[in-house]
Amino acid sequence: MVMTFVFSLLLLLVGPAICGGTFSDLFQPYWAPQNVAVDDDADQTKLSLDASSGCGFESKKKYLFGLASMQIKLVEGDSAGTVTAFYMSSDGPNHDELDFEFLGNVSGEPYLVQTNVYVNGTGNREQRHTLWFDPTQDFHTYSLFWNRRCVLFLVDGIPIRAFVSKEVSGIPYPRSQPMGVRASVWNADDWATQGGRVKTDWSHAPFVSTFRSFQIDACDLLEDGSGTEVVTRCTESGQFWWDKPEFDGLDRHRNRQLRRVQRKHLVYDYCRDKLRFSDQLPRECVA
Ligand SMILES: *[C@@H]1O[C@H](CO)[C@@H](O)[C@H](O)[C@H]1NC(C)=O
Ligand SMILES: *[C@@H]1O[C@H](CO)[C@@H](O)[C@H](O)[C@H]1NC(C)=O
Predict the structure, then answer these.
(1) Where are the domains of the chain?
(2) Residues 258, 263, 266, 269: what is their CA dihedral angle, to the nearest 10 degrees?
(3) Pocket test for ligand 1, best of 118, 120, 166 (most atoms within 8 A of CB)
(4) Is position 97 annotated as part of the catalytic site?
(5) Helix, strand, coil share (%) of the chain residues, nearest 5
(6) Which residues pair with 112 in a beta bridge?
(7) Does the keyword Transmembrane helix apply (predicted)?
(8) Architecture of domain 9-274
(9) pLDDT by residue, tens only, the chain of 287 residues
(10) In CA terms, which of 152, 225, 239, 250 is 20 to 30 Å from 258?
(11) Quick check: 1 and 27 in contact, CB under 8 A?
(12) Alpha helices in 126-251 (DSSP H)
């Protein structure tokens, strides 16, 4: 079981791009295309934030379960006030969303990785981690794994967060809304860096993050794909590798990795924020 999981992920994360594609095969800009620099030949797409705008790209298709992965090299030097995001999101008011948000910092100070899960329009499920490397010096692989039982946030194949379904206890879990895969760079200096105390220094613009090695191995909706029969195709059990029992959760090895990361790198967990949730912690934290 351990081997299968490790093997599958290795294949997907470091192997040849068996389910990858060029940027243009998979994605298109959705915000400020003038700030999205695509170079398919070099397998490299750069997103720039300047005083006029941030920018972003999204997958051409929507997906229901699977794995989405890309390598990112984050804004170097002074990145204070900026956020680089890699996420999946559905559309509409009661949307589901799975977020990686990389919170920039002044030169020499560490980035934080914020993750969040929205279900049916409600988020407020933030965790924050430090990283065990400088994410501005090299490309690293960030992945979102998603099936009916759990969502995993992975950094270089190591789980940093598991959001496990507790639907049996009546707690909402994202499993019926297809999501697009997206990335963006934007100004968030009202909150991102040191609690919003440090603002974006526009004299250091443009702020550029680079993306490559795009891989999406997920059940895609055909055509416009909102029809229920298409959703059924993706949710029918047993069809895809991520439906197999060994992907229902973390095996012992991955559980150990996760616990180690949580011990060493977790700096904020909404489930422990009694000040913020003074009345009552969110239900999934206590169930
Ligand atoms: C989603 O939220 C809306 C209200 O915003 C509610 O009416 C609906 O029942 C919720 N759906 C699920 C599946 O929880
Ligand atoms: C930025 O650096 C400061 C000082 O080291 C640290 O407290 C903070 O967590 C870092 N990250 C962000 C996003 O503010």
Answers:
(1) 9-274
(2) 90
(3) 120
(4) yes
(5) 20, 35, 40
(6) 103
(7) no
(8) Sandwich (2.60)
(9) 334 454 455 444 444 445 778 999 999 999 999 999 999 999 999 999 999 999 999 999 999 999 999 999 999 999 999 999 999 999 988 999 999 999 999 999 999 999 999 999 999 999 999 999 999 999 999 999 999 999 999 999 999 999 999 999 999 999 999 999 999 999 999 999 999 999 999 999 999 999 999 999 999 986 554 556 567 788 886 789 999 998 988 999 999 999 999 999 999 999 999 999 999 999 999 98
(10) 239
(11) no
(12) 228-235
In angstroms, the CA 193 to CA 38 distance is: 28
Q: Which residues line ligand 1 (CB under 6 A)?
A: 94, 120-121, 172
Ligand nearest to the CA of 268: 2
Structure tokens at 141: 């692989």
Task: Please tell me the distance from the alpha carbon of residue 169 to that of residue 287, in angstroms, as a whole number.
Answer: 7
Note if 223 is an active site residue: no
Whether the CB-CB separation of 72 and 86 falls below 8 Å is answered with yes
CA distance 33 to 182: 14
Atom 9 of ligand 2, residue of closest alpha carbon: 194
Q: Which ligand is nearest to the CA of 121?
A: 1
* Model confidence, pTM: 0.92
The residue written with tokens 């977790």 in the block is: 266
Active-site choice (101, 126, 229, 284)? 101
